[in-house]
Amino acid sequence: MENLVLVGAGYWDGAPDGVATRGLYNLSPDTGEWVSVTDGLPDKVEVRGIARRGSILYVGTQLGPCRSADGGQSWTLLELPGRERVVWSIMPVGAATLYVGTEGTSIYKSDDDGETWRLLSVPAPTGLVAMGFPTRVVRLAHDPANEQEIYAALEVGGVVRSLDGGETWTDCSAHLIELSRQDHLRSRIGSNTDTEGMLDSHALVVSAAQPGTVMLANRMGLFRSADKGDHWAPMDIGRFSELTYARDLKVSPHDPNTLFGAFSVSANSKRGSLYRSPDLGESWTRFDHDVLIESTLMIIAPSNETPDRVYCAARRGQVFGTEDGGASWREFPLPDGVQGVYALACA
Questions:
Q1: Which residues pair with 202 in a beta bridge?
Q2: What is the helix (H) or strand (E) element at residue 178, kind and residue range?
Q3: Cβ neighbours of residue 177 under 8 Å, at least 6 residues apart?
Q4: How many CB atoms sit inside 10 A of residue 75's CB?
Q5: d(CA 27, CA 330)
Q6: Nearest to 42 by CA among 18, 65, 16
Q7: What does the mean pLDDT of the chain come to?
């Protein structure tokens, strides 16, 4: 799995008519070109989530999650039992537990690495906003200090939390809704409510350096909760970046104090930026340079193997990577027409 870089794309309604915005692609370390991955995957595969557990890879497709034990050369579909099958998020926990988030508010759990599943009872948050697209569980995270403490980011529905491994759930959006009453945190694009922006969740993380503290990326920026999602406070990313639409947030696998953030103008924009924080979001500096990110930066993938390797991908098909800790960057454009990028992973 050395030098593995996988990127996934799904249907995207912002793409031009007739453009095929889907697929799973592997970056060839020999040629620097992208190779379409198809063996065992659904026809015309759409991929919106990628995860790893050691040498095992998982991707979320329109028909459910798939697993690979050979570095992505072949895949096996792990069939879900419920109605919702379009996977947006995957989270391996421990040696064999697997969580999957789909469209709607559906979250599935497996205790045997995807061989069997059960649908968890996740109630729809009271503030969930009806948009022109389905609600989806766009990101799952757990506290590294407590595998039973799980958080889910819902688009556009805020955050829900479980403290018992998914058996029961609590809506953590009440204070996000309260914050939306502030003029600078009001936003409505596809609904009739100003709470829309604050509930437009995209990513969340919990760092081993700060157990019990959740950090959320949404349309209005970055927010932090020191009490497991009951209350939220702005992290004021606007002090450091003129772009504040936050699409992704990742903790470095090598330093729990280091964060990476993806910031853009909007969901469908012509500018994106990658920032790094050495102190859990207290300060940020621009991390990408000498490359031009020409659309919304969607996803960040720091390598699990080396701290010097970080990749990121933009909505309209640009992938960027550094192999030397940000000293230099290289662009790897996806094949012509591939847009709707949502997922990325690198070894």
A1: none
A2: helix 174-179
A3: 127, 158, 195, 198, 199
A4: 24
A5: 13
A6: 65
A7: 96
- Roughly how many angstroms between the first and final C-alpha of the chain, as a whole number? 7
Strands of 23-27's sheet, edge to edge? 34-36, 23-27, 5-9, 341-346
Render pLDDT for 152-186 as a digit per residue (tens, 0 to 9). Answer: 999 999 999 999 999 999 999 999 999 999 999 99
CA distance 223 to 54: 30
Which of 147, 314, 139, 100 minimizes the C-alpha distance to 217? 139
pLDDT of residue 21: 81
Task: Give DSSP secondary structure letters for 144-172.
Answer: TTEEEEEEEEEETTEEEEESSTTSS-EE-
Structure tokens that stand for 89 in this block: 């998020």
What are φ and ψ of residue 6, in 5° steps?
Answer: -115, 135
Report the predicted TM-score, pTM, of the whole model to 2 decimal places. Answer: 0.96
**Interatomic CA distance for residues 149 and 165, integer angstroms:** 6
| 335, amino acid identity | P
Cross-sheet strand order for the sheet of 272-277: 245-251, 259-264, 272-277, 285-286
Farthest-apart Cα atoms in the chain, separation: 53
Which residue carries 């970056």 as its tokens?
27
Percent of the chain with pLDDT over 70: 100
CA 164 to chain centre: 23
Give CA–CA dist 245/13, Å, rounded.
19
Dihedral sign (CA 64, 204, 14, 133)? positive
Cα separations (Å) of 312 from 31, 108, 166, 250? 19, 27, 30, 11
pLDDT of residue 337: 86
| Segment 44-103, tens digit of pLDDT | 999 999 999 999 999 999 999 999 999 999 999 999 998 999 999 999 999 999 999 999
247, 296 Cβ separation under 8 angstroms = yes
Residue 178 corresponds to which tokens in the numbers above? 């309260």
